[in-house]
Write a structure and sequence with these properties.
This protein is mainly alpha-helical. Helix content is 68%, strand content 0%. It has 34 helices and no strands. α1 runs antiparallel to α6. It is elongated, with a radius of gyration of 31 Å.
């Protein structure tokens, strides 16, 4: 059997130069309106809040792991991306135009590389419409709306940058397969390495090369081992070095388990739910309507591969694999294209747990399959009279796609435009961000509704809990605010956001000492986060000023004013430490002293003493102190909460119910009281 081999270096014809120019113009034209877009969504944390990209001298540190992507968003090692942001900053500062221009240029280069790759892949075809077909299917890639996330969103650059090295690695592999020149093998390895350093999903490259050899070049495994050992040894060695080095770099990163998408779910649920994404990805490639910037919670979790969604997905995968096997000898490039799609999707299928469910940007490298498949079909139909109609249909699709892309670019212009583009669509982060938009407009009831919808989909979402707490803080429902903020904090004790929120809550409720405790925690975690250090210094300065005024006063001082604010704060801090260490006797004595020297806050101190007794299961004593707290401040709903809990634990559910209801009467939004009341009904 004669095997069609790609040419070593097909000379570029004069008309092909025009094709390159045409493709570059098309790719630029459909994304020109993205150049006026702002930084949106994760750009704020990955670019605006990352000072490491402001110095060119940091570039080597991105590759050693001392700085970089993983310091901002967790277990990702992408030094090439950080490098590109740093170069952009060196040229443009924080002007978003320059960053967006780089994204567009990366996309243009990918388009031109794809054209070259397709010319080599189909070099054995002698169809008179080959050049036009390849031009057309490359244009389809250039204008496809599914790529707007990669091109129009600065942080989406990861996939474009990975592709800009992935495609030349493939091109040099094709050259090496024919020429056997060492230089081509070296360049294959270099570009593969750079692609890996841009994004992890490039790890599929060796499998893609193997598929191409088996299907298009029709080589058997034994022959490959014998004739292509240098190629595979090189690729396997690079892959192993990357995996080991990446593991070493990320070993210093503390795992954030609650950020994993299937956190708390079993492997059957993860596998079955992820299966559903394959038909959706395929639909987005063929019919790219209803695009979303975030798909978390978009599809329901399913617990078994025997459920309808999973069975449909299994059927789709089976059809693709069967078609690839059946077409292997009839249309090898098309067969390869179908399997290429499935293989390049594997890294984003949560086989290794990640924070993401699915994303349109994940399709940038896999989407090459559409150009390969459509080109194969066009060339197959070249000898039929209706081939021109098929070409016309692809051309029309490209025009429609181009229009859709230009329109979609506008959705990425600002945060509000992006978030509002998802109205009416289900999703955890779409709901969260719509809630944020409502909160900024002062519509707290609507914001609360959106945050609750997000929590209905993913109760373990830190930001939804935290932001719902902020809504209650604005409404003045401090118990409910603390309930959700603390829930967020417990989901990830390393996150500074809920700690900052709790500190802000205490600041707003004039609980200065408690605010200082939380600001000290925040300052130890991330002194730059939300101006933690400055906020702490401001409170200390205010306390010092009050002490100075008190000391300079000629009025007789009561027992409480004889003690400075800093003295009270220090004793409160020590009592908190004693409580946390379960030194209850010491904590109780310290709080009794606080009642004596600072009676204005005695209701809080009595309640805290009650909690010390609750922790020791001494419910009778706890009830007495909670009652004292209520006597000091009859409107202190937290004390009624605690008193209800003490009665519940002592077995008096009727009195527990009465106190929970009283807490809700004082604070109708008190979520803790609602939850406990539900538990005893």
């Amino acid at each position: 059997m004669n095997v069609v081999r790609p040419a070593v270096s097909t000379p570029i014809k004069g008309n092909q130069l025009y094709y390159y120019l045409i493709l570059a113009i098309i790719a630029f034209a459909v994304y020109a309106n993205s150049l006026s877009n702002q930084f949106v969504f994760d750009d704020e944390s990955l670019i605006l809040s990352d000072p490491t990209i402001t110095l060119l001298s940091n570039i080597p540190l991105f590759f050693t792991g001392e700085m970089g992507f993983h310091k901002v968003i967790g277990a990702y090692f992408r030094p090439m991306v950080s490098t590109s942001f740093t170069v952009d900053y060196a040229i443009w500062g924080y002007d978003p135009f320059g960053f967006h221009l780089t994204n567009v240029l990366i996309h243009i280069i990918c388009v031109l590389l794809l054209y070259r790759l397709l010319m080599m892949m189909f070099s054995g075809s002698h169809s008179n419409i080959k050049d036009h077909s390849i031009l057309l299917v490359t244009a389809l890639f250039a204008v496809h709306p599914i790529h707007t996330e990669v091109v129009s969103w600065v942080s989406g650059r990861t996939d474009g940058l990975a592709c800009v090295f992935y495609l030349p690695a493939f091109i040099f592999y094709l050259r090496f397969a024919k020429s056997r020149r060492t230089n081509d093998l070296v360049f294959t390895g270099i570009f593969y390495s750079l692609s890996l350093l841009s994004k992890e999903m490039a790890i599929t490259f060796p499998a893609v090369v193997l598929l191409y050899e088996l299907i298009v070049n029709k080589r058997g495994i034994k022959k490959l081992i014998r004739s292509e050992s240098a190629m595979y040894i090189t690729l396997i060695l690079i892959s192993l070095i990357y995996i080991v080095y990446r593991s070493i770099v990320l070993s210093q990163i503390t795992p954030r388990q609650s950020y994993i998408y299937f956190y708390g779910k079993d492997s059957a649920t993860a596998f079955s739910t992820m299966l559903q994404t394959i038909p959706l990805y395929l639909r987005l490639m063929v019919l790219p309507y209803g695009l979303l910037y975030h798909y978390s919670g978009y599809l329901p979790d399913i617990s078994s591969p025997l459920e309808t969604g999973a069975l449909i997905a299994i059927g789709v995968v089976a059809v693709l694999i069967f078609a690839a096997i059946w077409l292997r000898n009839r249309m090898p490039q098309l067969s390869f294209g179908l399997l290429y799609f499935l293989v390049t999707l594997l890294p984003v299928m949560n086989i290794i747990p990640t924070p993401n469910f699915m994303a349109e940007r994940f399709l940038y490298i896999p989407s090459v399959f559409l150009s390969i498949v459509v080109c194969s079909i066009l060339l197959k139909l070249a000898n039929f009279n209706y081939s021109k109609y098929v070409l016309g249909a692809v051309f029309l699709a490209s025009v429609v796609f181009g229009y859709m892309t230009i329109a979609r670019n506008g959705d990425w212009k600002t945060n509000d435009a992006l978030f509002l583009s998802a109205q009416g669509r289900q999703g955890v982060f779409t709901y969260i961000n719509l809630g944020n938009v409502s909160a900024r407009k002062g519509n707290m009831d609507e914001a609360e509704l959106y945050f609750r919808k997000a929590l209905d989909l993913r109760p373990e979402t830190l930001i939804a809990n935290n932001n719902l707490g902020k809504v209650f803080m604005v409404k003045g429902q401090y118990d409910s605010a603390l309930f959700y903020m603390n829930k967020a904090r417990l989901l990830d004790t390393l996150s500074p956001e809920p700690v900052s929120s709790i500190a802000e809550l205490h600041e707003k409720s004039n609980m200065t000492s408690e605010a200082m405790v939380w600001l000290e925690k925040l300052n130890a975690m991330a002194p730059q986060y939300m101006n933690a250090k400055q906020r702490l210094d401001n409170i200390k300065a205010q306390m010092l000023a009050r002490d100075t005024i008190n000391k300079g006063s000629t009025q007789p001082k009561s027992d409480s004013t004889a003690h400075s604010s800093s003295d009270i704060y220090e004793l409160e801090r020590l009592s908190g430490i004693s409580y946390n260490k379960k030194n209850y006797s010491e904590a109780i004595e310290q709080m009794k002293e606080l009642i004596r020297i600072n009676p204005s806050r005695s209701s809080v101190y009595y309640s805290n003493i009650g909690m010390c007794y609750m922790d020791q299961n001494r419910f009778f004593e706890a009830i007495g102190y909670f009652q004292s707290s209520i006597n000091s401040d009859p409107k202190f709903s937290t004390a009624y909460n605690n008193l209800g809990y003490a009665f519940e634990m002592s077995g008096d559910k009727q009195k527990a119910k009465e106190n929970y209801e009283k807490a809700l009467q004082l604070d109708p939004g008190n979520q803790l009281a609602k939850q406990r009341l539900e538990n005893i009904r």
